[in-house]
Specification:
The complex is a heterodimer of chains A (about 230) and B (about 110). By secondary structure, chain A is an alpha+beta fold. Chain A contains five helices and eight strands. In chain A, about 25% of the residues lie in helices and about 35% in strands. In chain A, strands 1, 2, 3, 4, 5, 6, 7 and 8 form an eight-stranded antiparallel sheet that branches. Classes of the chains: A alpha+beta (about 230), B alpha+beta (about 110).
Chain lengths: ~230, ~110
Amino acid sequence: MFWRKQKAAIAGFHPLHQALIFERGFAATHPAAEWSALAASLHRHAGLIRRSKWALPHRAIDVFLPLLAAVCEDLGPKGVLAVTADLRGIHVPAKSHPARDIPVRPPARSATETWSIDPWLRLHAGLRDGSGLDILVVDRQRLRRVTKRGSSGKTKIKRKTQLTQLIRVRRRLPRGVAGARPQVPPPAWIGVTLRDGERRSVLAAAKLPRLPQSADEQVDRILTVATETFRWTR
Amino acid sequence: MTPCAVTTGFFTLGKCGQMAVAGCPACGRAVCADHLADGGMCPECAAARRQFGHPAAAAAARRRAYRHRQAQYYGDAGYYSGFDDYDRAAFEPGAAAHQDYLDDGDDALVDS
């Protein structure tokens, strides 16, 4: 039997770790202790698994784990964190809308546009201060495919992609907490909205015109948007 | 009972508050059994000495580095380094967190 030792190692991993290996994602709700067990399991992966087919998605270790550690620190003893992670990537067919024709002018003969939406991470946490925190990260790709014919009759097909990322965070304040506008305004790339209701919500949203170039930058961007909602309860 | 004076949390800072079992030999603050890091130090002192064997020391280093970076980015040195009254109040005795996790409401970020 091939890969016997690595199969045995995978069998000993946390169930959500196994889901990340085989399905590239999971949806689960657990208290902080269970997420710590998952983190410990993920840290063992690199030392035990070498087969590339069973490698973890790159965002699992570099992005998901630091976020998990940060959010879990604020979970109370009864607090739970719900995670929906889909790390299959944006090129999965199910994440693409049907292509649609867009108007063209000569020398272009036809053009199609395809949108792909990849909500790869959703977090919902009940924090120990009584507030609820939602984090949503979505990659969005526009693919344009243009067919051109030159004066010599040669046909060329050109493709152009535009990849953006949306980060949206909502913090529902505890009951009776009104919040206050911070003295220092948020940076221009973060938009903040207050929504009144039974419990006030602070929504922070950012649209990044390009994907972060490193995992550290990705984590930093998400945490910066998330932290913005906590500046409104000074 | 002497409560543990170790700072916990990432977004909302607070004190641990469990029963302390020792004092940090470096800074003298009371530390509970869960937060005793390498050398019997508190997590902050262990992190300052780059001893990250205890998870709380790694968390303290992460929190400190992030807040320092954010304070520079926002140009607001006091905000991210200090505790606020609201965060402190959440850890007062009797002010237990109210977890209404399932109550999404109309303004939910994601349809469920």
